[in-house]
């Protein structure tokens, strides 16, 4: 007789033990849920009574600490929100997780304010949660801003976690920590109840050990109208056309490029037609990209803070003042010049904002869609991020390159999946597509994941040691 499904209680107890052993090393979880075991007992009872809610019933999920949970603090990593009561309601995506039978195991640390406060920031650091470290190399970055979610899954503190992305904040920590990160099309998952940076670019998304798990989570988070897991169809990509935009998304890491070439070989062997030596236009000026975020953050953050406890901060100006008054903790490693720039903006009807937004859409949506159409592509594939850089709290991040800006400006989906190791450090490839092509990207990433495991075996587990 085959054993029955593992109980939620047994799973939570095992993860809590692992948390006590490993979280002190990686600091991925900033707020464990003290009620997780009680919730597991309740869900096991439901299952025993024949009332299982679906395939995620009884599974623990970690949630990034900028997503509202009515029973746990939501701080965005800032001490300005740390002493405030929890939000009055769960974010809609959290409510959907609970309704599907998921257990909120805790909240994960992040780069404070989603890495948009000061230019010299270090990914994975927040005044509230401290510094998250990469399980594969404790002296190297876990990426940002969903650093805690990425490191937690890699460390085995949960198989399922939720991150958020504006520009790279899911796919970067996914790549650096050797896990799967899915940034959905903006709008597929409700934005309400998420501490905002940019309404035109922000979205939550799954961060998991496998593509199939990410697809199952996306089904629940998006409301269940599409069964994304059905897109995990094996490793046959016959008839699929995948473009390779070399410019400007390759060339910043030779070792990463070499592993990505091996990934192209696997995709071709799976039946895909690779259309190589393509190029995307520049993602626009850095000034335009910064203007979009600066203008949107001031407005969007005020709208969010209005939903929180009336005794807390209400505007970006309030946060800036708090940071100045608590500079020894909040401003210890880097400043808040991005906040101050945002505070000087004058609303979303500004000609500067409108022009920057239109420029971003042309570079992002037109750039991606034109390349897909002109070459009859189903999707594109690129290297994800450079291997994890050394943590440097004094000088900030040392990112060599990335490939998320076009999709960020467009609001289009990305899916990062592990592709190999560079001197023991995980790297990945990223699949890109047009709006609402999430299911296509899941199919391609699952096929690649299957082919890579067949060729090279399971991805190695981290050793929780410094990289030397």
UniProtKB/TrEMBL annotation:
InterPro entries xref list: Amidase_dom (IPR023631), AS_sf (IPR036928)
Domain Amidase: 11-441
Domain of life per record: Bacteria
Pfam family, one: Amidase
NCBIfam families xrefs: PRK08137.1
Descriptive protein name: Amidase
Protein's organism: Kribbella koreensis
Species lineage: Bacteria, Bacillati, Actinomycetota, Actinomycetes, Propionibacteriales
């Amino acid at each position: 007789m085959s054993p029955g499904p593992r109980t939620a209680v047994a799973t939570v107890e095992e993860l809590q033990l692992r948390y006590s052993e490993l979280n002190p090393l990686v600091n991925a979880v900033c707020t464990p849920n003290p009620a997780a075991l009680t919730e597991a007992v309740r869900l096991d009872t439901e299952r025993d009574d024949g009332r299982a809610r679906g395939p995620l019933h009884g599974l623990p999920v970690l949630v990034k600490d900028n997503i509202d949970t009515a029973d746990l603090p939501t701080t965005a990593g800032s001490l300005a929100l740390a002493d405030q009561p929890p939000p009055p309601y769960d974010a809609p995506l959290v409510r959907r997780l609970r309704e599907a039978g998921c257990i909120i195991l805790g909240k994960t640390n992040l780069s404070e304010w989603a890495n948009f406060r000061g230019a010299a920031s270090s990914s994975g650091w927040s005044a509230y949660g401290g510094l998250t470290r990469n399980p594969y190399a404790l002296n190297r970055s876990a990426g940002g801003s969903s650093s805690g979610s990425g490191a937690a899954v890699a460390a085995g503190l949960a198989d399922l976690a939720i991150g958020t992305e504006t520009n790279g904040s899911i796919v970067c920590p996914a790549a650096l920590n050797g896990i799967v990160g899915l940034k959905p099309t903006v709008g597929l998952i409700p934005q309400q109840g998420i501490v905002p940076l940019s309404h035109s670019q922000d979205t939550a998304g799954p961060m998991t050990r496998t593509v199939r798990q990410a697809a199952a989570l996306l089904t629940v988070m998006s409301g269940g109208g599409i069964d994304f897991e059905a897109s995990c169809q094996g490793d046959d990509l016959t008839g699929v056309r995948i473009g390779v935009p070399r410019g400007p998304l390759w060339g910043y890491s030779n070792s990463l490029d070499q592993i990505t070439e091996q990934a192209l070989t696997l995709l071709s062997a799976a039946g895909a037609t690779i259309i190589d030596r393509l190029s995307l236009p520049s993602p626009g000026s850095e000034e335009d990209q910064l203007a979009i975020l600066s203008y949107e953050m001031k407005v969007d953050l005020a709208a969010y803070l209005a939903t929180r406890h009336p005794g807390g901060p209400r505007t970006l100006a309030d946060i800036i003042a708090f940071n100045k008054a608590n500079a020894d903790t909040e401003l210890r490693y880097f400043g808040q010049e991005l906040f101050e720039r945002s505070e000087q903006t004058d609303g979303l009807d500004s000609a500067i904002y409108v022009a920057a937004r239109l420029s971003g859409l042309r570079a992002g949506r037109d750039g991606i869609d034109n390349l897909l159409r002109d070459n009859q592509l189903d999707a594109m594939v690129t290297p994800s991020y450079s291997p994890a850089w050394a943590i440097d709290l004094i000088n900030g991040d040392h990112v060599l390159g990335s490939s998320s800006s076009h999709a960020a400006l467009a609001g289009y989906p990305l899916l990062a999946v592990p592709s190999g190791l560079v001197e023991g450090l995980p790297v990945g490839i990223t699949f890109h597509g047009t709006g609402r092509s999430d299911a296509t990207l899941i199919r391609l990433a699952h096929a690649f994941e299957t082919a890579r495991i067949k060729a090279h075996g399971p991805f190695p587990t981290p050793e929780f040691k410094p990289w030397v």
